[in-house]
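I had to read the description of the data format several times before I understood it. For illustration, here is how one protein appears when written out as sequence plus structure tokens:
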Amino acid sequence: MNCALLKEALMDFMVEKKVEVMQRVSFDDVPGHICKDLLAAMARRGDVSSDDDDEEEEDMEKNYSKMRIGDLRQKLDEKGLSLDIDGSREALISTLKEHS
């Protein structure tokens, strides 16, 4: 399993079991960039309300940010882009934005 997929699965688990995770896990040493991945998992589940922005670029960015890793890879494949890039969420989104 890819590290990005494993991290995504962990974030989904944490959102699903949020109360238990808050009670049993120490977040003292968690890197700050994990918050972005956790918020993306919450947004996918509908646990985060989205702002109503009419600008197309912002909407596209929000949609990419909410997409699962597999969906981002599929979008890249549909556009005929190489999947040899770093499989991180940030790299996938960046490549999609560059070629939109």
Q: What stands out?
A: Residues 52-56 have pLDDT under 50 and may be disordered.
